[in-house]
């Protein structure tokens, strides 16, 4: 007897839907981040990323584990160039980006769109929050 499986579609920024192959792989044994096998996978992944971007001889990679929010906060807080960051905001996620940038005293400008619409439909620009 076969059992029907509901396929849920998640409409939020995370977590994400995964393929059946990923779901199957997740049923296997855990791999500790201190094991030699994990180090080998991590080293190979870093090498491949550099090769994909043609940066083997000029850059290195740092793979950070954490949530998507942790990755975004790390990226925004490490920005040091002299220009401004453009935030495309149509809801709470864009507002969170503004909060991260404000706390980090980064220069930014926000292009706002109504909640739930695409940022491409935005027609007004908000000047950046004052930063030190």
What does this structure look like?
With 132 residues, this protein is of the alpha+beta class. 34% of the residues lie in helices and 10% in strands. The protein has helices spanning 20-25, 36-52, 68-77, 92-103, and strands at 85-89, 108-112, 124-126. Strands 1-2-3 form a three-stranded mixed sheet, covered by helices on one side.
Brief rundown of the structure:
By secondary structure, the chain is of the alpha+beta class.
SSE map:
Blueprint lengths: L19 H6 L10 H17 L15 H10 L7 E5 L2 H12 L4 E5 L11 E3 L6
Parallel strand pairs: 1-2
Antiparallel strand pairs: 2-3
Query: What's the alpha carbon Rg, rounded to whole Å?
Result: 20 Å
Order of helices and strands: HHHEHEE
**What is the beta-strand fraction?**
5-15%
Enumerate the strands of the largest sheet in spatial order, edge to edge or round the barrel. Answer: 1-2-3
Low-confidence parts? none
Tell me the span between the first and last alpha carbons.
66 Å
Q: What descriptive keywords fit this protein?
A:
132 residues, alpha+beta, 3-stranded mixed sheet, 4 helices, 34% helix, 10% strand, flat
């Amino acid at each position: 007897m076969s059992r029907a499986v509901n396929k849920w579609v998640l409409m939020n920024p995370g977590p994400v839907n995964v393929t059946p192959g990923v779901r199957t792989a997740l049923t296997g044994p855990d791999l500790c981040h201190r094991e030699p096998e994990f180090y080998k996978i991590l080293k190979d992944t870093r090498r491949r990323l550099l090769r994909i971007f043609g940066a083997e001889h000029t850059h290195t990679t740092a793979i950070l584990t954490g949530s998507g929010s942790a990755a975004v906060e790390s990226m925004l807080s490490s920005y040091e160039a002299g220009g401004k960051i453009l935030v495309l905001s149509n809801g709470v996620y864009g507002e969170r980006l503004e909060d991260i940038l404000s706390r980090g005293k980064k220069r930014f400008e926000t292009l706002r769109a109504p909640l739930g619409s695409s940022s491409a439909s935005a027609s007004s620009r908000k000047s950046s929050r004052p930063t030190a």
